[in-house]
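Before relying on records like the one below, remember that each one covers exactly one chain. Contacts with other chains, cofactors or solvent are not represented anywhere in the record.
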Amino acid sequence: MCSSDLIDPKLLRDSPDLVRAAIAKKHLAVDLDAVLALDTAWRAAVQEVESLRGKQKAANTAMAALPKGSPEFQANVAEMKAVSAQVKEKETALKDTEEKWRHALLTVPNLPHASVPEGRTPEDNVIHALHGNHDEPRPHALPHWEIPGFDKLYDFPRGAKVTGAGFPFFIGDGARLVRALLNFFLEEDVRAGYTEVSPPILVNAASATATGQLPDKEGQMYETTPDRLFAVPTAEVPLTNFFRDEILEEAALPVKRCAYTPCFRREAGSYGKDVRGLNRVHQFDKVELLKWVHPSTSYDELEQLRDDAARLLQKLELPYRVLLMCGGDMGFGQAKKYDLEVWAAGQKRWLEVSSCSNFEAFQARRAQIRFRAKETGKPELVHTLNGSGLAVPRVLAALLENNLQADGRVRLPAALVPYFGKEFLSFS
């Protein structure tokens, strides 16, 4: 990864107050003074090495004009050796400074868009839209883990025995319903213009760094040894890196892809009602939507991405709301983010099922994903966007709770019936 793969160093140097304000809006602890000091030290070290190399080149030129063996030639040989030793010493120091500089730049988050509201906690997020009647009486609704027979289709204790907490078995029609949801999501996403991809579910450190998972979320990822590969927390990581170190043609934009993968997250520190049942698991199934777009259209593309995810919830007949996330409740790499939450009638609470984000050039700079501008012929950074289309567990939880009938069966929405093959899910 080269130095240009991180936050834009020019922006950092020219507008440090802007970067400070962005960090403050995200309520992140970053020692920007230390980053700036390392940037200054790196530039000084580069200049010093370049000056010595110039001196070395000039000495070489001078030596070429001198008779070999002459006193002047011998003096230049001695000077050359001294300069060469200096160059080697300073190059070693430069390498060390550059390594520290790169690491420091990786700690600087993406700048939030001007439209991102101020705020520190989820309570400060803004309700952008509401769809459906979440107050509709559902007299038979129960928290999904309390539905009689739930454990026949979704076995958490045996999953914990085999792997650990948060790794359930899905059995019979329970597994069939998950497969139905995934097929429904993928078919709808393809109809919306996304090309389906089946990506690897293990990625290397370079890929995870490009998307911002490293170093920010290293503790939340499952890592293999000795290869140091990471189980994907979302298909965003392999999909984004598909074009890493490549230049696209401007006419090819936007590029739209969707992918299903199992996802793996340690979710360390999670506890209480938020993790009961399907609310939070360590392995889950999700379809991801991803776009590589022209910078001039990226915010229009974000609105469309959000609508693409919302359309799935509408067809599943689930009440949902759209939240515009405040600065303090956004991720490290996002410039702007919407969350989509479904209403779970049994729990009487909202459950997040999709995040739709614009990263602007943050990921593209790290991954060096560019397009060749038709007008200038020069490479420019694309903007990347991603969103869940959708995550299965909480959608499933809402379907079970909202549609539970008096006889203990769950009525499935009409759009899902062709994929499941039956109108009702039975736990008997």
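Residues 278 and 393 are 5 Å apart (CA to CA).
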